[in-house]
Specification:
Low-confidence stretches: none
Order of helices and strands: HHHEEHEHEHEEEHEHEHEHEEH
Mean pLDDT: 91
Number of helices: 11
CATH architecture of the largest domain: 3-Layer(aba) Sandwich
Keywords: Activator, DNA-binding, Transcription, Transcription regulation
Distance between the termini: 64 Å
GO molecular function: DNA binding; DNA-binding transcription factor activity
Largest sheet: 5 strands, mixed
Strand content: 15-25%
Domain HTH lysR-type: 1-59
Helix content: 40-55%
Structural class: alpha/beta
Organism: Antarctobacter heliothermus
Radius of gyration: 23 Å
CATH class of the largest domain: Alpha Beta
Family: Belongs to the LysR transcriptional regulatory family.
């Protein structure tokens, strides 16, 4: 019978493409890992990797089986987590990942609410890009991820919408659009936008915020964070779209930039996602309620 240990060996080899590093990741010796994989291949009747003295090449079936192995291992982790919670009478550990354009603005408001609602829960936060978060969730490295949609999710992941997050246009104080009460998609046509670098979902969301209009990216610069974008706008180097969440959290406080409404822009949808197989769905929905409360608190504070 195929063992969980063999599945871990297979997933580690696919991740590292190296027997030594895979063995290190699994906390075994290289001969142990090699022997386990040979036993797996013999049982399955297929070759999962081509080996040479200096390289490892996963076969097509090996790549597919490694992906299935990751899914099984995540389910095993869920199984063990459920048993551990029962054994420890409610003590909970939650590994939450978030994209950089949501977590830094929402979580400072949310943390006190989460601590009050779940006093025995140890919360560990990670900030990563969306692709990395989804991979971490599927593999079992993360329990829960805070993302923005539209974004394609694998079938083993389920999500719950938290709130819509619209945009405002940020311009230098002397920019021609700074004097308008509102700005439309047509106003932005042929005006390149300063955006986050590729890999940030906000970059794609901003460009598609006006589906009927083609928006262009300023190719001369790509930022790694919203504060960098704001600083570039303040220096008169361009214009950008900023999510309302970040603005309500005070992202532009102390900066000389003009913010203009974009009433026709399509908002992004901020949501919480977890594995469909997880036994903690009830807890995750409770976390979602607290995150909504945090967002409402930011909005209320911003309107005072």
């Amino acid at each position: 019978m195929t063992t969980v240990r063999q599945l871990r060996f297979l997933a580690a080899l696919a991740d590292t493409q190296n027997f030594s590093r895979a063995a290190e990741a699994c906390h075994v010796t290289q001969p142990t890992l090699s022997s386990g994989l040979k036993e797996l291949e013999a049982r399955l009747g297929v070759q999962v990797a081509e080996r040479s003295k200096h390289s490892v090449l996963m076969t097509p079936v090996g790549i597919e089986l490694a992906e299935r192995a990751r899914d099984i291992l995540a389910r095993v982790q869920d199984f063990e987590d459920r048993a551990a919670r029962e054994a420890t009478a409610g003590a909970t550990q939650l590994r939450l990942g978030s994209i950089p354009t949501v977590g830094p603005f929402l979580m400072p408001r949310a943390m006190p609410l989460l601590r009050a609602a779940f006093p025995e829960m140890a919360l560990y936060l990670r900030e990563e890009l969306t692709d990395s978060l989804i991979a971490g969730l599927v593999s079992g490295r993360l329990d829960l991820i805070l993302i923005a949609r539209p974004y394609d999710l694998p079938p083993q992941v389920v999500s719950e919408e938290l709130f819509s997050d619209g945009y405002r246009l940020a311009t230098p104080m002397t920019h021609p659009l700074a004097n308008q009460e509102t700005v439309s998609g047509e106003d932005l046509a042929e005006r390149p936008l300063l955006l986050l670098e590729r890999g940030h979902c906000l970059q794609r969301h901003a460009l598609s915020s006006f589906p009927a209009v083609r928006l262009d990216e300023d190719q001369s610069f790509a930022a790694t964070s919203l504060p960098t974008l704001i600083a570039m706008v303040e220096e008169g180097l361009g214009i950008t779209l900023l999510p309302q969440l970040a603005l309500d959290a005070g992202a532009t406080r102390g900066h000389q930039v003009q913010l203009t409404d974009l009433p026709q822009a399509c908002p992004r949808q901020v949501g919480l996602a977890w594995r469909r197989s997880s036994a903690q769905a009830g807890l995750f929905r409770a976390v979602a309620r607290e995150l909504r409360r945090a967002r409402q608190g930011l909005e209320d504070a911003a309107t005072v």
